[in-house]
């Protein structure tokens, strides 16, 4: 995902410095076991009437534009929560989610959004996203575990972001990024033979 050029508008070292008030670390036994990132942006102004179809990428672009033009942010977007494997499965993600919410409140932001990447979607590759997220368990919460965590924390669903995190690259790029060999001994096409994946 870090090959998404938009990610550099947030995660590039000198830029990330501007967002450190919105970045969090989870510590257990003196060791960092989790990290979380969020980004503030201006909403409901300058044509931003609804959340963008571009989701994760687009809120980063909006935030960058806000910083460049001096527009004051009024909402927060989560970007990532990652736990080391040893810290997973114990509800620790909720603490990081709560830390983001507290951060948004402390700055007087009206709302917090999360462009959530449902964790078990890859098990249903041919299901439409809308159908996938509408699947619920017996408790009425989403069947997808990561969506469920957000709903339990009080979230409601706003929309599907159909082209969030669109990472463009040639097949050769993708083979290199993912460390996969090309099949059948064929040469990977040169960069420029456009491939796109979301
Ligand atoms: C996604 C992640 C942050 C969840 O954090 P966590 O603290 O381990 O989550 P929880 O312990 O609160 O578990 C939430 C639910 O998911 C379930 N769950 C956890 N891992 C699961 C898995 N691999 N498959 C299916 N269900 C899983 C838990 O049983 C729990 O279910 P419940 O709601 O019925 O109780 C963590 O697994 C992680 O860091 N994953 C890698 C990074 C990532 O994918 N981040 C999300 C996108 S930014």
Q: Tell me the strand order in the biggest sheet.
A: 1-2-3-4
Number of strands: 6
The secondary-structure class comes to alpha+beta
Topology pattern, helix = H, strand = E: HHEEHEHEHHEHE
For the termini, the CA-CA separation is 10 Å
Q: Name the ligand types.
A: coenzyme A
Characterize the structure shown.
The structure is a single chain. Helix content is 30%, strand content 19%. It is built from seven helices and six strands. It has helices at residues 8-11, 13-16, 55-69, 92-106, 129-133, 145-152, 171-178; strands at residues 23-28, 31-41, 75-83, 111-113, 167-170, 194-197. The strands form two sheets. The chain has a four-stranded mixed sheet. The chain has a two-stranded antiparallel ribbon with strand order 5-6.
Topology:
Blueprint: H1 8-11, H2 13-16, E1 23-28, E2 31-41, H3 55-69, E3 75-83, H4 92-106, E4 111-113, H5 129-133, H6 145-152, E5 167-170, H7 171-178, E6 194-197
Parallel strand pairs: 3-4
Antiparallel strand pairs: 1-2, 2-3, 5-6
Bound molecules: coenzyme A.
Keywords for this entry:
198 residues; alpha+beta; 4-stranded mixed beta sheet; two-stranded antiparallel ribbon; 6 strands; 19% strand; disordered C terminus; binds coenzyme A
Summarize the structure.
The chain has 198 residues and is α+β, with helices and mostly antiparallel strands.
């Amino acid at each position: 995902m870090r090959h998404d050029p938009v990610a550099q508008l947030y995660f590039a070292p000198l830029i990330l410095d501007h967002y450190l008030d919105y970045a969090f670390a989870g510590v257990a036994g003196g060791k960092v076991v989790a990290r979380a990132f969020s980004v503030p942006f201006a909403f409901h102004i300058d044509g931003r009437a609804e959340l963008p179809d571009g989701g994760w990428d687009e809120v980063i672009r909006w935030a960058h534009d806000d910083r460049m033009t001096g527009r004051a942010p009024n909402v927060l977007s989560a970007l990532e929560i990652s736990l080391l494997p040893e810290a997973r499965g114990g509800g620790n993600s909720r603490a990081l989610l709560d830390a983001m919410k507290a951060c948004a409140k402390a700055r007087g932001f009206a709302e917090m959004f999360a462009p959530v990447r449902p964790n078990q979607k890859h098990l249903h590759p041919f299901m439409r996203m809308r159908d996938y997220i509408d699947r619920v368990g017996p408790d009425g919460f989403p069947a997808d575990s990561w969506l469920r965590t957000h709903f339990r924390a009080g979230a409601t669903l706003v929309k599907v972001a159909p082209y969030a995190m669109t990472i463009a690259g040639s097949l050769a790029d993708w083979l290199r990024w993912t460390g996969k060999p090309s099949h059948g001994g064929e040469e990977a096409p040169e960069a420029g033979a456009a491939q796109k994946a979301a």
